[in-house]
Amino acid sequence: MTETSHRRIAIGDVHGHYKGLMTLLEMIAPSSSDSIYFLGDLIDRGPQSAQVVKFVKESPHKCLLGNHEQMLLNVMAEEEASSSVIQNWLYSGGQATISSYQGGTILKEDVEWLKTLPTYLDLGDVWLVHAGIDPNIPLAKQTADQFCWVRDEFLSVEESYFTDKLIIVGHTITFTLPGVAPGKLAQGEGWLDIDTGAYHPRSGWLTGFDITNGIVYQANVLQNCQRTLTLEESVVKVESHQFGVAVRNKQRKKQNSKKANNTPFGMFKQKFNFFNSK
After folding, report:
1. Calpha distance 153→177 (Å, rounded)
2. Fewest Cβ atoms nearer than 10 Å: which of 15, 28, 116, 172?
3. Contacts for 183-187 with beta carbons within 8 Å, 24 or more apart?
4. Closest by Cα among 189, 188, 226 to 207
5. Other CB atoms closer than 10 Å to residue 222's CB: what's the count?
6. Is residue 254 part of a domain?
7. Integer angstrom CA distances of residue 183 from 21, 140, 174, 207, 253
8. In this structure, what CATH number is given to the domain that contains residue 185?
9. Residues 74-99: what's their mean pLDDT?
């Protein structure tokens, strides 16, 4: 097929895999007329979160807020952060992010930049968001709690949320969905999931999707290989009835929950020495 210029390209969850991202961008070879959109979760789990943030922050590309960025911002938001908030971020790959910064010190300028990230982008015929939309809540009342975290309520919808827009998401690794093999994209009613699990040992695939031309670019960060496919070759249709009751064994913990056992943020900051206030 003949490719159309002025491409719109969405990139799934990078999770600190800077080298894989550079390989993927070499494959895509974006021109100045192309638009690149990161769907969030630049950080955590992988070894080079600091490098990924620096690159995207200094680039002309657009980026959405993911739940991993939100976890980091929640830890940084208050003088005191509950131990559950702190431990949940560290358990979810936050320690790898800390380690990726020189001296284990996260730059304040990076945190300030993360605060500016939007939760969604409306491109007209396409709606980009990290996790999805909660179909049970009016759109105007939804916040990062839905846009960065929703899962089954969105993925199991029986009808498209928008009649004139495709919703493209990351957040949920596609092979965790019914009948989807590692590296494949997943499509449901009005949505397309391109998080192919770059950090996960079962996959390693980092995906960029050329929305304009229907081309899928993938770099495997574990096997050091690449492939370019059509959307038809890459996608698996997931029927809403395959989800059954929309409940998972692993439910996300509320990041703003307050528990009795609070750890003073100052003590935590001193313990890990990961925040540069300059």
Report:
1. 13
2. 116
3. 183/218, 183/220, 184/234, 184/235, 184/236, 185/209, 185/216, 185/231, 185/234, 185/235, 185/236, 186/235, 186/236, 186/238, 187/235, 187/236, 187/237, 187/238
4. 226
5. 15
6. yes
7. 16, 34, 8, 8, 27
8. 3.60.21.10
9. 87
Amino acid 254: pLDDT:
38
Is there a domain that residue 4 lies in? no
Q: Which residue has the higher pLDDT, 36 or 278?
A: 36
Q: How many whole angstroms separate alpha carbon 251 and alpha carbon 153?
A: 12
Domain limits for position 231: 9-273
Tell me how far apart the terminal alpha carbons of the chain are, to the nearest angstrom.
Answer: 51
Label the pairing between strands 275-276 and 106-107.
parallel
Residue 241 burial (CB < 10 Å; 0-12/13-18/19+)? Answer: exposed
Residue environment code for 98-121, b if the CB has 16+ CB neighbours within 10 A, otherwise e: bebbeeebbbeebbebbeebebbb
Question: How many domains does the chain divide into?
Answer: 1
In this prediction the pTM is 0.87
pLDDT in tens, 148-168: 999 999 999 999 999 999 999
What is the SS3 assignment for 277? coil
